[in-house]
């Protein structure tokens, strides 16, 4: 029903459109094309930029997730290393396999202290560990909470039963972290098992079973974490939502409290509806753990600037439509004006001038010499193509600027990402060094002034396993003398490390201090930090008892991971006074610290250096106030803009070609009728062909010209035909007059001879008693008397019937009464006049061709009546009828101008038809109907002619 209504509306619009004149049509075409092209151009161009911005943000999100994922993977690798140390620790393994351990409470206490001490050494850095649970085959269950002492969980624990029925130890993904969530509350009777479930519930769990050489399970190590630790491993962004799923697609962590479960795909990113809002979803897989880190950002935040352009686009669109309307109104009037004048002149004078198509007014202007088609194309070029190209150029220019700003913003965001990475690493270094400074091993070594380096060496080896970026550690007393150094040849006083060491440490206020190193005993580039060691005896943290100096690899800043993501982006870390700490440009950009210092003092966002221009971004770390400088070559930014520029050029070119094609088609549709009309005029002029009628549609000026042209040709043909028919009629009348004169002469010669001969035959028959011959000659005489009568060509129907009866009587004698004739003619008809001998030829045809082959029973019925001043006669027989193909020939013969000497219908019937047409034209008609073996019906009609007329 809706489709039907739409089609009806469309047909109504088309009907209205056809009634438009040329000016309205041109205006309509211009507005219609513009109203269609403007939104199409807008939405298509918006979609292109939308896709490019989304793609650029996807790349940025990939970088963001890749870095966050690398932090998480590094974290799990560290945990794996810690668990490996626990697994290989002989003291811990022995404690979990000693069969008599749980029989003696004192042994349990001693074992608990041993395990706690070992774990304190191994888990030197917290690494977000919540707890460590150790389960032994000797039914020993131990719980370690980082930062506090270990606990014995209880003596009612059965390892074998827990291993068999527990869904923790039966986890098939051993060695992979998983999120443990108890679906129902623990209802068992074993309190120790209940404690274990409660400690692990809603936590991220890392499981490793302890096995002997025969692969027999001897215990288990379970490490748990609060999932919120992930927030510290990912860059903070209030507009970004992060979600972490485990390999079972169970939610581990999210920085948003309200979100739908996100379905993953294999493409890496998608646009999906989350929380009833369109979001850009990007995922990064954490191998080999099977985790999926997902970031989703509201599309409205990404495309904020793109959405803001709508109001400008509406303004551009309105201006474009107004421009098209005004220009169309002006130029359509100029094009349509000659048509108005021509149609007005055509209406006044209906004539056909002698046109010379080769003539050309050489004095007319260039525009006037152009063809209508060229003028219309120019019209559309001015009113459609130019405004639309201006519109799309402005639109794409605006989109180009938005996309360029988006690329620059994302490039700038990279430096923020690096800054987040640096702050994270510096925070970890701060926690790491603080843990060393206040460890029992370091405190004991410094306080006792112990010369035995074995315990501290063992402690440092554990530290290096946990923090491979740490190359060396040196301890100095308050006078600056070296107490310990992991570099055996670096036993010099602290002033050899930094001349202003004590002054800088005094200003540090106990915080981690960055040192400007004077000497480097490693071949690798180093970064040096130091911090004070305060006494923890009696919980007094005021007394400085020593200083610690830490030597770290510069790689811990991880700058090259960012430069790999951005092919030509450079990052430099420097102090506030311009000293370069680390860089990833291999010294290509700046040869001295003075260049860096000048850049730091400048607030410019762009830099020209050695012929290249760079986008400059600066950030300051929260720790140590390091300056981070990011330089992105504008060539790299421009390379990202090249696809949009190419699309822009291609799109504008395509629009130009399409609009030009549409304009040409519309021009062709308008001028085609003019060309047709022009060709028709040429045919008339050159070939005198007046049979032309030009097809016409619509109601515009061209349609009016076409109608008037057709009317003119039709009128000329009518005049020619009327003149021809008058002359033809005159010639026929002259022929008939001559024929009448000839007949009159013949009738003057023949009558007396015919009458005298027939009268002699009649009396001879009578004298000899042959009465039938006598009657036959009497009837024949009467028939001839009627035929050669000198009266008018028209006689009464009554006289015609009398004449017909004489003919029928003669034929009955001939055919020995094989047929009979039934006449049913109304009295009012008998008084009217008809052409003489109009019935006899038809009856003769019925007898000769219809009843001739019958043995008996032939019937001919003749009827006549008047209806609407028309006399109708019907002659019907029950003879053998006429075959279909013969009937067609008879009908064709009636219409033919030629006279056939031999025909099934005879000369008489055609003579009747021709006389009816000659006397009465279209009002005289004759019709033959027949079927084989079903008889024949002949009907003819003519106007009523009363006797007195």
From TrEMBL:
Its EC number is 2.7.13.3. The chain crosses the membrane at residues 26-45, 312-331, 376-400, 649-671. Gene3D superfamilies: 6.10.340.10, Histidine kinase-like ATPase, C-terminal domain (3.30.565.10). It comes from the Bacteria. Residues 838-946 form the Histidine kinase domain. CDD domains: HAMP (cd06225). One of its GO terms (cellular component) is plasma membrane. Keywords: ATP-binding, Cell membrane, Kinase, Membrane, Nucleotide-binding, Phosphoprotein, Transferase, Transmembrane, Transmembrane helix, Two-component regulatory system. Residues 668-721 form the HAMP domain. It is a multi-pass membrane protein. One of its GO terms (molecular function) is ATP binding. It catalyses: ATP + protein L-histidine = ADP + protein N-phospho-L-histidine. Its main location: membrane. The keyword Coiled coil does not apply. It is found in: Cell membrane. The keyword Zinc-finger does not apply. This is histidine kinase. It comes from Iocasia fonsfrigidae.
């Amino acid at each position: 029903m809706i489709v039907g209504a739409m089609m009806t509306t469309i047909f109504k619009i088309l009907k209205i459109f056809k009634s438009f004149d040329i000016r309205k049509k041109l205006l309509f075409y211009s507005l219609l094309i513009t109203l269609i092209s403007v939104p199409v151009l807008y939405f298509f161009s918006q979609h292109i930029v939308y896709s490019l911005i989304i793609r650029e943000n996807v790349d940025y999100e990939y970088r963001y997730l890749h870095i966050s994922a690398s932090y998480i993977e590094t974290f799990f690798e560290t945990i794996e290393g810690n668990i490996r140390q626990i697994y290989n620790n002989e003291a811990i393994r022995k404690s979990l396999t000693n069969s008599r351990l749980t029989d003696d409470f004192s042994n349990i206490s001693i074992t608990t202290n041993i395990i706690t001490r070992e774990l304190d050494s191994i888990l030197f850095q917290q690494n977000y560990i919540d707890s460590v649970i150790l389960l032994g085959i000797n039914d020993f269950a131990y719980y370690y909470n980082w930062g506090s002492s270990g606990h014995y969980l209880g003596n009612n624990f059965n390892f074998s039963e827990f291993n068999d029925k527990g869904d923790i130890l039966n986890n098939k993904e051993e060695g992979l972290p998983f999120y443990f969530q108890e679906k129902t509350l623990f209802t068992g009777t074993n309190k120790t098992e209940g404690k274990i479930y409660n400690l692990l519930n809603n936590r991220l769990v890392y499981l490793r079973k302890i096995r002997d050489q025969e692969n027999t399970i001897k215990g288990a190590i379970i490490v748990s974490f609060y999932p919120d630790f992930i927030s510290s491993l990912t860059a903070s962004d209030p507009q970004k939502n992060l979600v972490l799923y485990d390999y079972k697609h169970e939610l581990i962590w999210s920085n948003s409290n309200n979100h739908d479960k996100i379905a993953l795909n294999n493409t890496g990113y998608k646009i999906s509806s989350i929380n009833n809002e369109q979001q850009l979803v990007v995922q990064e897989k954490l191998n080999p753990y099977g985790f999926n880190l997902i970031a989703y950002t509201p599309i409205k935040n990404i495309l904020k600037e793109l959405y803001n352009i709508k109001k400008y686009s509406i303004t551009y669109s309105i201006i474009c439509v107004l421009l098209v309307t005004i220009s169309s109104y002006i130029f359509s009037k100029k094009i349509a004006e000659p048509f108005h004048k021509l149609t007005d002149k055509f209406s006044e004078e209906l004539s056909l001038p002698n046109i010379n198509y080769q003539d050309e007014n050489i004095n007319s202007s260039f525009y006037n010499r152009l063809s209508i088609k060229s003028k219309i194309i120019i019209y559309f070029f001015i009113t459609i193509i130019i405004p639309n190209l201006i519109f799309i150029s402005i639109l794409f220019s605006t989109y180009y600027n938005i996309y360029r700003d988006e690329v620059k913003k994302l490039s700038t965001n990279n430096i923020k990402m690096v800054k987040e990475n640096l702050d994270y690493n510096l925070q970890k270094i701060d926690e790491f060094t603080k843990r060393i400074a206040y460890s029992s091993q370091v405190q004991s070594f410094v306080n006792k002034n112990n010369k035995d380096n074995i315990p501290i060496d063992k402690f440092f080896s554990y530290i290096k396993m946990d923090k491979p970026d740490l190359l060396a550690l040196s301890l100095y007393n308050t006078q600056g003398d070296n107490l310990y150094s992991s570099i055996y040849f670096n036993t010099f006083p602290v002033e050899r490390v930094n001349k202003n060491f004590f002054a800088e440490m005094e200003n540090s206020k106990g915080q981690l201090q960055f040192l400007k190193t004077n000497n480097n005993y490693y071949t690798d580039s180093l970064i040096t930090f130091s911090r004070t060691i305060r006494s923890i005896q009696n919980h007094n943290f005021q007394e400085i008892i020593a200083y610690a100096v830490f030597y770290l690899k510069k790689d811990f800043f991880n700058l090259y991971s960012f430069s790999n993501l951005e092919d030509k982006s450079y990052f430099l870390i420097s102090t506030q006074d311009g000293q370069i700490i680390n860089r990833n440009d291999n010294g290509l950009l700046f040869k001295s610290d003075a260049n860096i210092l000048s850049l730091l003092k400048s607030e410019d966002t762009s830099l020209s250096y050695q012929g290249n221009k760079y986008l400059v971004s600066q950030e300051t770390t929260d720790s140590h106030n390091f300056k981070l400088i990011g330089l992105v070559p504008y060539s790299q930014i421009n390379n990202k803009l090249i696809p949009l520029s190419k699309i822009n050029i291609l799109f504008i070119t395509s629009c130009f070609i399409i609009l030009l094609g549409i304009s040409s088609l519309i021009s062709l549709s308008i001028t085609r009728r003019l060309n047709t009309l022009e060709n028709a005029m040429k045919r008339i002029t050159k070939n005198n062909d007046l049979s032309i009628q030009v097809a016409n549609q619509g109601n515009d000026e061209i349609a009016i010209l076409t109608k008037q042209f057709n009317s003119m040709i039709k009128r000329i043909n009518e005049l020619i035909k009327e003149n021809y028919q008058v002359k033809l009629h005159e010639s026929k009348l002259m022929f008939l007059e001559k024929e009448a004169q000839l007949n009159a002469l013949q009738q003057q010669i023949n009558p007396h001879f015919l009458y005298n001969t027939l009268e002699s035959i009649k009396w001879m028959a009578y004298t000899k008693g042959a009465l039938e011959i006598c009657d036959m000659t009497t009837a024949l005489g009467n028939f001839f008397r009627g035929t050669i009568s000198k009266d008018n060509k028209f006689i009464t129907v009554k006289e015609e019937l009398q004449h017909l009866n004489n003919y029928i009587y003669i034929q009955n004698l001939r055919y020995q009464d094989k047929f009979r004739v039934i006449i049913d003619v109304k009295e009012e008809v008998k008084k009217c006049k008809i052409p003489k001998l109009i019935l006899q030829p038809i009856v003769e045809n019925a007898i000769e061709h219809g009843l001739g082959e019958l043995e008996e029973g032939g019937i001919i019925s003749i009827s006549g009546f008047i209806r609407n001043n028309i006399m109708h006669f019907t002659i019907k027989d029950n003879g053998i009828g006429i075959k279909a193909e013969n009937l067609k020939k008879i009908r064709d013969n009636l219409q033919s101008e030629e006279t056939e000497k031999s025909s099934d219908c005879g000369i008489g019937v055609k003579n009747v038809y021709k006389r009816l047409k000659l006397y009465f034209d279209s009002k005289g008609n004759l019709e033959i109907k027949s079927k084989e073996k079903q008889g024949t019906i002949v009907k003819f009609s003519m106007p009523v002619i009363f006797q007195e007329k």
